[in-house]
Design a protein that fits this description.
The structure is a homodimer. By secondary structure, chain A is of the alpha+beta class. Chain A is 34% helix and 28% strand. In chain A, the strands form two sheets. In chain A, strands 1, 2, 3, 4, 5, 6, 7, 8, 9 and 11 form a ten-stranded mixed β-sheet that branches. The longest helix of chain A is centred in the middle third of the chain and has 21 residues. At the A-B interface, helix 9, helix 10, strand 15 and helix 12 of A face helix 9, helix 10, strand 15 and helix 12 of B.
């Protein structure tokens, strides 16, 4: 694909085999607990560290936070950022489920803790699936014990499949980061927006590393890497009740990360997060095209992000991309209502590298060439705001198809 | 339709015949200038006051402001809010057209002024249609002279049709407002989002009254009435380069409006603006249903508006409405990411008056009843945030259909 990774240029990073169990010190499993209706479908996963790991999490900013989000936040706070395991189910989001839902999320943690042999607050909990339905707890509990019994290295792909709702494909990735202090590994898995069952509560990602990282530093790196990866994607501008990204650091590589080693850790987290995030967009509901939107020469990065996000979420831009229409007017109109500061007379728009609008003037003769680019699957839109400052941002989105409407409108819950 | 007008309860207001020429002191015309391709299609309108009128305008907040928006702002400022006419064309938005576009907009004003016999700054200009294309000025000029020659009362419906792009129906309305000081009339016309040709630059509305109103008071009333009418609608969350609402007050009724008479003027403007605004939503691209979203018991009106607007623009809510799916989880999830302050455990959601979620608990048994309401054409969604405060807002939107994607994606510009 045409999207190049900024991360890979910043450190000596090479792709490694596997996902969450690629780093030393982790085992995982994915089992069929019977939460999903389909016979034998994997729907419960446990990712466990062999010993206490540093842990960090970032969570949905939606006010309607699902029970597992509330419980995971609590546990991270009480444990001071130390964890032994993450337990995840798909098929039921345990969101908008009131006090009973909170009890269920707490029981998922305590059952996992007793099976592994740790304190309940050392287990993080995550759920994805339908909103407003309670978990079938006896099945969930049996599934947890089955998963813990099966924990092993090399089970990353089952784990990746067990967290899927109706994602079209599993998403996992791992890299080796070579630094002056030695090499460490970062692995991860993610799930995105479902494809058939509506009402999904949506994006989850779990990252692991065998670097030795204090919890605070892990949190800082997770937030910073998510800004340009998981927080730089949008399918339909919706922010779910269950979104979370969690990271565990086992320390098993013995490679110490402090302020001096921070850049390497950040580059490793980015190198795993970026393809996972792009995978979520590619597997977005109804998506037929991946669209990379780059905004340059903004007053600052925040302004650039505001403009890029508004273009990325514009239904008129997304339908134009779907129809392979090089409609620069919609891109400028979206940028203009974004709140980002710029002067149209100094702005330029490129589609697939083809200049369509330059400092206030259309280049309609280039329209056919841009149209041909838009017929592909990997679309690049670039807007230069021409402010003379160097703010920039990159966002990934997908096109808006009639299939999105069909998936979300024509099926009944 | 089930939406009741708040305005009609606040004053003695009755519907009157006609549109912009219903108030005394106005004439109008709509002609075929040849800007649109279709043979004989009306595409140029002039609304003229018999003598100097008070004038006010509110304009798009998009940074990419079309040439006619820039010129109309300038003219309102220079004239101190006095105008003789509004000239409008459809078929070409004169947006993103650089210096040449500004010259064209100025020429539209000066030609209209010379035909009528007033100063150029006493003419307001408005355009709607395709972005990025220059006006065919010789046709526009001929059209202006033809329209001015035909100015008459009772030509409101031609005027309403001449400002349409591909709106499915013309929109005009008028009311008589009876006050202790006497009766005056308010009339208006509006156009909304096109249905076939993409890239429309979109919402225009023109209001007239024969009340005697100083320009500052007219501006204040226009802003206040637009807040709950034209600014309370959304089709797809897009804000165009050409959006504007303009008002002229001829004073021909002799009814003086000052601070004491302000409420009557405001009620009259609202009573005309609300059905025009609702007409824009009903005629929205691909719309099959009108959706009224009411948010109650918010911390304040701004918070209520934020929540209502996020629900109204949520593609997941809009597709669920399209599919007649009583999906309260999507409504709560949209509210939760809106920035409005509330506690889900105190919030309630009603669809068609049917309680689906009450203070944190689902009422799934009511789902079928709400589903039947959603199969109609007039949909009501109500969310009570349960904060104990009295902030409220009402927003109108439409459903998101595959037809929207087809209109905006599958046609080429």
């Amino acid at each position: 694909m045409s999207v190049t990774s900024a991360a890979s240029r910043e450190a000596d990073i090479t792709t490694a085999d596997g996902g969450v169990t690629a780093p030393a010190g982790f085992r995982s499993a994915g089992v069929h607990a019977g939460i999903k209706k389909a016979a034998g479908a994997l729907d419960l996963a446990v990712i466990a560290a062999d010993a206490d790991a540093s842990a960090a999490g970032i969570f949905t900013t939606n006010l309607a936070q699902a029970a597992p989000v509330i419980v995971s936040r609590e546990h991270l706070q009480r444990s001071g950022g130390r964890a032994r395991a993450i337990v995840v189910n798909s098929g039921c989001a345990n969101a908008c489920t009131g006090e009973a839902g909170l009890d269920d999320a707490r029981r998922m943690a305590s059952e996992t803790a007793s099976a592994i042999g740790c304190a309940a607050e050392q287990v993080l909990v995550s759920s994805t699936g339908v909103i407003g339905v309670n978990l079938p707890m006896s099945r969930v509990e049996k599934g947890i014990h089955a998963a813990v019994a099966e924990l092993a290295r090399g089970r990353g792909s089952e784990t990746a499949r067990a967290i899927m709702t109706t994602d079209p494909f599993p998403k996992e990735h791992a890299v080796t980061v070579r630094t002056a202090r030695g090499a460490f590994v970062v692995g991860g898995t993610a799930k995105g927006s479902g494809m058939i069952e509506p009402n999904m509560a949506t994006m989850l990602a779990f990252l692991t590393t065998d670097a030795v990282v204090p919890p605070q530093l892990l949190h800082r790196a997770l937030v910073e890497s998510a800004r340009d990866t998981f927080n730089a994607i949008t399918v339909d501008g919706e922010c779910s009740t269950n979104d979370c990204v969690m990271a565990l650091a086992s320390g098993a590589s013995g490679v110490q990360i402090d302020d001096a080693g921070y850049a390497g850790l950040l580059a490793g987290l980015r190198a795993v997060s970026e393809p996972l995030a792009i995978g979520i967009v590619r597997g977005g509901e109804g998506a037929t095209k991946l669209v990379e939107i780059t905004v340059l020469d903004a007053v600052d990065d925040d302004d650039a992000r505001r403009v890029a996000r508004t273009i990325a979420n514009s239904p008129l831009v997304k339908t134009a991309v779907h129809g392979a229409d090089p409609n620069w007017g919609r891109i400028i109109a979206a940028a203009g209502r974004s709140g980002g500061r710029f002067d149209v007379a100094r702005a330029s728009v490129r589609v697939g590298g083809v200049l369509l609008f330059e400092r206030g003037r259309p280049h309609d003769e280039a329209s056919d060439q841009a149209g041909r680019h838009l017929q592909g699957r990997d679309i690049r839109i670039e807007m230069d705001l021409g402010t003379g400052s160097r703010g920039r941002a990159r966002i990934w989105t997908c096109d808006l198809s009639a299939e999105y409407v069909r998936i979300n409108g024509e099926y009944r819950t």
